[in-house]
Design a protein that fits this description.
This protein is about 75% helix and about 0% strand. The C terminus is likely disordered. The two termini are about 15 Å apart. The chain is mostly helical. The protein has one domain.
Length: about 190
């Protein structure tokens, strides 16, 4: 089961990384286009390259239309896509200045309690994403500029959230088993298998 969950978390991280890379390229292209359009609108450029500048502007040199809509939709998916790998490798940010002085049993208890709480929160988030997805499908909401159905972004985020739910439930069960058995089952941090 651990190999399957690790593989699932890695696949989601790769998908999230691919989408994030695409979003970065999209934003860069949009910035370059916006800057080029600003330069082409300058009166000095218009006077020297009037016809060429007008031709470039007429043929689409400028920011990517709907770039913010695509970034918003893509980032929602990306956040949920990275949650499983953070969960399975215990890579979430923690502040353990005080807990380092606790006994190993108390540390295992706190870790198990945090993992169970995290699993519950992710389940609630996924549930609310499902509700939002159903609402967006029913209403037929679309984005403002590109007019793509909003439910597409909700569906992608929900799919990634379901994987996050599966991994977080698995990790919480493992942490409870570690608490009961007193032994480490799932390695984390630098020892975790990546």
């Amino acid at each position: 089961m651990q190999k399957f969950m690790n593989r699932l978390a890695h696949v989601m991280a790769m998908l999230g990384g691919t989408v994030l890379t695409g979003l970065i390229l999209l934003v860069c292209l949009s910035i370059v286009g916006r800057t080029a359009a600003s330069v082409l609108h300058l009166s000095a450029v218009q006077s020297v390259f009037g016809g060429a500048a007008a031709w470039l502007l007429d043929h689409g040199v400028g920011p990517v239309t709907g770039d913010f809509e695509l970034v918003e939709a893509g980032m929602a998916f990306t956040v949920f896509a990275f949650l499983p790998i953070c969960q399975i490798s215990s890579s979430h940010a923690t502040v353990d200045i005080v807990t380092n002085f606790f006994s190993p049993t108390l540390q295992r208890f706190l870790r198990a309690a945090a993992e169970v709480l995290f699993a519950v929160v992710i389940c609630v988030i996924a549930w609310k994403l499902w509700d939002g997805l159903q609402d967006k499908i029913k209403r037929g909401d679309t984005s403002f500029l590109l007019q793509f159905p909003i439910w597409w972004a909700f569906a992608a985020s929900f799919g990634a959230a379901v994987v996050a739910v599966l991994v977080s439930i698995y990790v919480s069960l493992v942490r409870v088993a570690e608490l009961v058995s007193g032994r480490m089952i799932l390695l984390d941090g630098p020892e975790a298998e990546h």
